[in-house]
Specification:
Blueprint lengths: L31 E10 L12 E8 L6 E5 L12 E6 L10 E6 L35 H11 L3 E5 L6 E2 L15 E5 L3 E9 L12 E8 L6 E5 L12 E5 L9 E4 L15
Antiparallel strand pairs: 1-2, 1-4, 2-3, 4-5, 6-7, 6-8, 9-10, 9-12, 10-11, 12-13
């Protein structure tokens, strides 16, 4: 892809990494290039057609300004060096993925010339479906441990800033505004006020909740920071700003399952507008 400054970025990206502008100009580059750096590999990754060992290389293709990471088929580390000229070895069967490049191989010929593709395709790809998964290991600090421990007793605690006196829920151990440490614990809630909300119309995988449903920011009584939570016990189209709600706990749960209306009159806008 070619951004406004005239560079050619390989692999292509949708947005200029410098200016964040959208890039639309597709530019063809040569199948030959130069190794800019490399590392010898002693194990074969899953799906990699090369036999062990081989080299991982960054290759700047002729006509490109950035380097592409891929495998290099070489007899040994003595055959690999920065500045080595290489070319693409195409896979026998191609599907429009990076694996269409089987690997790079050493090449001592003249730089290949692009065919001059104009970037237009008869069957343009408009989208892809790619599975993705993120696993997190979360380590709470002092303030978060106190917050989580209180939830086990069906209490919600925050911490008060000693300077501005704001109460933060969940606590982070420091005031966002003043930058000073917080230690004074304060019980808040359990009731609160819906400050804003959204209606969810897309069903999440492995989530046994029928759509549409509502997620809202809820300012618990006594807190100066809104939490988010699901609203239940009321039709989705009746949820509104100012609605007074309370938590609903399920047996054995360490946090509320959702919040439901308390039946109280709606809160006055001035009482929560600072939390919007």
């Amino acid at each position: 892809m070619r951004p406004r400054d005239g560079r050619t970025l390989v692999p292509p990206v949708e947005y200029d990494p410098v200016t964040a502008e959208e890039i639309r100009d597709l530019v063809e580059v040569a199948p030959t290039g130069t190794v800019t750096t490399w590392a010898w590999n002693h194990e074969t990754p899953r799906g990699q057609p090369l036999a062990t060992p081989f080299a991982w290389v960054l290759v700047k293709l002729d006509g490109a300004d950035t380097a592409l990471l891929h495998a290099l088929d070489a007899p040994g580390p003595e055959a690999v060096r920065t500045g080595l000229r290489v070319r693409i070895r195409w896979a026998e069967e191609r599907s429009g993925a990076i694996t269409d490049i089987a690997c790079f191989e050493p090449y001592d010929g003249e730089p290949a010339r692009p065919a001059g593709h104009d970037g237009e395709f008869a069957d343009a790809i408009t989208g892809i479906v790619a599975p993705a998964r993120l696993d997190y290991t979360y380590s709470p600090g002092r303030a978060q441990c106190a917050y989580i421990g209180a939830l086990a007793g069906r209490r919600t605690v925050g911490e008060r800033c000693p300077t501005c006196r704001k109460v933060y829920v969940p606590p982070r151990g420091a005031c966002f505004t003043c930058g000073v440490a917080t230690h004074e614990q304060v019980d808040v809630g359990p009731r609160g006020t819906v400050t804003t909300f959204c209606i969810v119309n897309i069903k999440a995988k492995n989530l046994d909740i029928e759509v549409p449903y509502v997620y809202a920011h809820i300012a618990l009584d006594g807190a100066d920071l809104a939490l988010h939570g699901r609203i239940g016990g009321i039709p989705y189209d009746q949820v509104r700003m100012g609605l007074r709600v309370e938590p609903v706990w399920t047996e054995g749960a360490r946090h509320p399952d959702h919040c439901r209306p308390t039946g109280e009159p709606d809160a006055d806008y001035d009482s929560y507008k600072e939390l919007l």
